[in-house]
C-alpha cells in the first residue's frame, strides 16, 4: 500500500468580545448565535478560558484578515490553534507576558473585555495563569503609588504628551518589538518540539477587536 502521513486536526480559536470563539455549524449542539454588523447570524462555540501546554508558535501574513501569531495549545485531548491578531489588546498583553511563562508547564489563558465602572474606560486583555501564579509582563511594571510605568529591555516608551496619531505610531513600535522578540527568543525554543505540522489554513476572524482605545491613552500591558 502507498505510504502516507496523516495531519493532526486542530480547533481554530480567536478572541472577540472577551471570549475565545470557535466557528460552529448552524444550530450545532452547544453553539451560540450572534448577529454581526452585516445582520448575519454567526454560530460559535464560546469559551471563558482555555488551558494546556504551549507547543508551537508561528507567524501568518495575510493581506485580507491581517497578520497574526498562531499559538498552538495542547490539552492532551485537543490541539487548539489560537489566532492573536497583531495590534489588538489581546496580542499585546499575551506576548508581553509570554517570556515569563515556563514553556514546559501548562497555562490557563483567560481573556477579558469590560468597562471600568469607576473610570468608564474600556479594559481589554488576557490573564495568563501558571501553577496558580498570575504571569506579569516581562517588559513593563506599574507602580500604583506613583501611577507610573517602568519599561525594560528596550520596550518602546511613550512620550509624556501624545495625541491620537502619536499613539498609533507608538503601538506600531510595540507590535514590531513584540514580533521581533517572539521570533528571536520564543519561537526557536519551541521549534525543536514541534512535530513538523503547521496548518496554514486562513481562518476568517469576524469582527476582530479594534486595536486599542487610543482616546484614553492607556497602555494595556
Task: Give a quick precis of the structure.
Helices cover 17% and strands 34% of the residues.
Strands, helices and their partners?
Elements: E1 11-16, E2 19-23, E3 32-35, E4 41-47, E5 50-60, E6 68-74, E7 79-85, H1 89-97, E8 107-115, E9 122-130, E10 133-134, E11 140-143, E12 148-151, H2 164-191
Parallel strand pairs: 1-7
Antiparallel strand pairs: 1-2, 2-4, 3-4, 5-6, 5-8, 6-7, 8-9, 9-10, 11-12
Helix pairs in contact: 1-2
Question: What would you note in describing this structure?
Answer:
This protein has 221 residues and is an alpha+beta fold. The chain has one domain. 17% of the residues lie in helices and 34% in strands. It has two helices and twelve strands; from the N terminus they run βββββββαβββββα. Strands 3-4-2-1-7-6-5-8-9-10 form a ten-stranded mixed beta sheet, sandwiched between helices. It has a two-stranded antiparallel ribbon with strand order 11-12. A hairpin with a 6-residue loop joins strand 8 and strand 9 (122-130). Helix 1 (89-97) packs across helix 2 (164-191). The chain is globular and about 50 Å long. Mean pLDDT is 87; it is low at 195-217.
Computed over alpha carbons, the radius of gyration is: 18 Å
Give the number of helices.
2
- Based on DSSP secondary structure assignment, what is the total number of beta strands? 12
Please state how the strands of the largest beta sheet are arranged side by side.
Answer: 3-4-2-1-7-6-5-8-9-10
Helix content range: 10-25%
Principal-axes geometry comes out as globular
- How many domains make up the coordinates? 1
Q: Report the major sheet.
A: 10 strands, mixed
Order of helices and strands: EEEEEEEHEEEEEH
What structural class is derived from the secondary structure elements? alpha+beta
The first-to-last residue Cα distance is 54 Å
Task: Write down the overall mean pLDDT.
Answer: 87
Strand content: 25-35%
Low-confidence stretches: 195-217
Amino acid at each position: 500500500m502507498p505510504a502516507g502521513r496523516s495531519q493532526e486536526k486542530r480547533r481554530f480559536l480567536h478572541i472577540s468580545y472577551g471570549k475565545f470563539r470557535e466557528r460552529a455549524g448552524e444550530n450545532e449542539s452547544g453553539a451560540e448565535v450572534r448577529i454581526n454588523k452585516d445582520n448575519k447570524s454567526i454560530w460559535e462555540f464560546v469559551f471563558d478560558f482555555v488551558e494546556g501546554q504551549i507547543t508551537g508558535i508561528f507567524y501568518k501574513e495575510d493581506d485580507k484578515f491581517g497578520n497574526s501569531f498562531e499559538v498552538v495549545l495542547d490539552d492532551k485531548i485537543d490541539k487548539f490553534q489560537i489566532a492573536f491578531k497583531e495590534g489588538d489588546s489581546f496580542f499585546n498583553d499575551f506576548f508581553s507576558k509570554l517570556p515569563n511563562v515556563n514553556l514546559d508547564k501548562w497555562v490557563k489563558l483567560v481573556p477579558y473585555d469590560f468597562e471600568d465602572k469607576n473610570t468608564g474606560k474600556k479594559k481589554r486583555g488576557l490573564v495568563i495563569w501558571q501553577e496558580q501564579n498570575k504571569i506579569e509582563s516581562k517588559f513593563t511594571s506599574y507602580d500604583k503609588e506613583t501611577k507610573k510605568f517602568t519599561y525594560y529591555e528596550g520596550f518602546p516608551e511613550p512620550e509624556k504628551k501624545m495625541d491620537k496619531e502619536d499613539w498609533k505610531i507608538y503601538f506600531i513600535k510595540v507590535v514590531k518589538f513584540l514580533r521581533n522578540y517572539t521570533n528571536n527568543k520564543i519561537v526557536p525554543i519551541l521549534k525543536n518540539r514541534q512535530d513538523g505540522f503547521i496548518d496554514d489554513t486562513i481562518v476568517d476572524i469576524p469582527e476582530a477587536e479594534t486595536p486599542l482605545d487610543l482616546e484614553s491613552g492607556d497602555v494595556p500591558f
